[in-house]
Amino acid sequence: MFVANCMTKNPITIAPDVGIDEAAKIMDKGHFRRLPVVEHGTLVGFFTNRDLLRASPSAATTLDRFEMRTLLSKIKVADVMQKNVITVTDTTTIEEAALVMAREKIGGMPVLSEVGKVVGIISSTDIFRAFVTVMGLDSGKTRLTIAVADRKGVLRDIATVLADLDINIDSMVTIPQPSGTYDIIIRADIADVETVKERLAAKGFTVSHVTQIG
Q1: Which residues touch 62 (CB under 8 Å, ≥6 apart)?
Q2: What's the pLDDT score for residue 64?
Q3: Which of 44, 138, 142, 199 sits 20 to 30 Å CA-CA off 11?
Q4: pLDDT-based confidence at residue 61 (cuts at 50, 70, 90)
Q5: Top-level class of domain 138-212
Q6: Could you write out the DSSP letters of every residue in 111-145?
Q7: 149-152: long-range contacts at Cβ-Cβ below 8 A with a sequence spacing of 24 or more?
Q8: Is the pTM of this model over 0.85?
Q9: Does residue 29 contact residue 87 with C-beta atoms inside 8 Å?
Q10: What end-to-end distance do the CA atoms of the chain give, in Å?
Q11: What CATH number was assigned to the domain covering residues 3-132?
């Protein structure tokens, strides 16, 4: 799955010379947390609700409402926006986008086309939704956790057991453990879990956890 498949497309953008009071109105009206800042068709910054909060007077201010509005109208988006913007392209994979966001500790970033035009925004919420889709978490299938050793042929052997029982695997993920072993997470439509556990045990595999999700 690519970023283009799950991003918010054609996002609202603002110019760098817009006052942050106006930017706040746009964000409030559209329930946005982030706005790409564009000038002459080029991304020049990223304005977020965190930038807005940082620039706003504190709750302890002695300014009245008129003075606060006047102050905010004088502060431009360019004064507080993030200038060194982290971006991805619409052809970036979801895995790569998730890795960038985790490493940079950010909740969202602009998405650019191959020619550098802003075509979307990808957020952590979008990543979560993609994860749900990829893993089939909303399909109501059975989730098996199988503890395995790090050796060749493990996936083949497990898949063979399930295939012999006429069970199709919806998704499979391997998770490395500190001990050097792996947990294999399988989601499938399984009517008789006990039979599956017995057949896997006969091949030397232990099902450590079973649950139904979705």
Answers
A1: none
A2: 57
A3: 138
A4: low
A5: alpha beta
A6: EE-TTS-EEEEEEHHHHHHHHHHHHTTTS--EEEE
A7: 149/181, 149/182, 150/180, 150/181, 150/182
A8: no
A9: no
A10: 21
A11: 3.10.580.10
What whole-number distance in Å separates Cα of residue 93 and Cα of residue 99?
10
Domains of the chain, by residue range, sit at: 3-132, 138-212
Tokens 């790569």 -> residue: 96
Q: Position of tokens 């498949």? A: 5
Residue type at position 192: D
DSSP state string for the chain = -BHHHHSEES---B-TTSBHHHHHHHHHHHT-SEEEEEETTEEEEEEEHHHHHHHSPPTT----HHHHHHHHHHSBHHHHSBSS---EETTSBHHHHHHHHHHHT-SEEEEE-TTS-EEEEEEHHHHHHHHHHHHTTTS--EEEEEEE-S-TTHHHHHHHHHHHTT--EEEEEEEE-TTS-EEEEEEE--S-HHHHHHHHHHTT-EEEEEEE--
* Strand arrangement, sheet containing 8-9: 8-9, 118-123, 108-112, 88-89
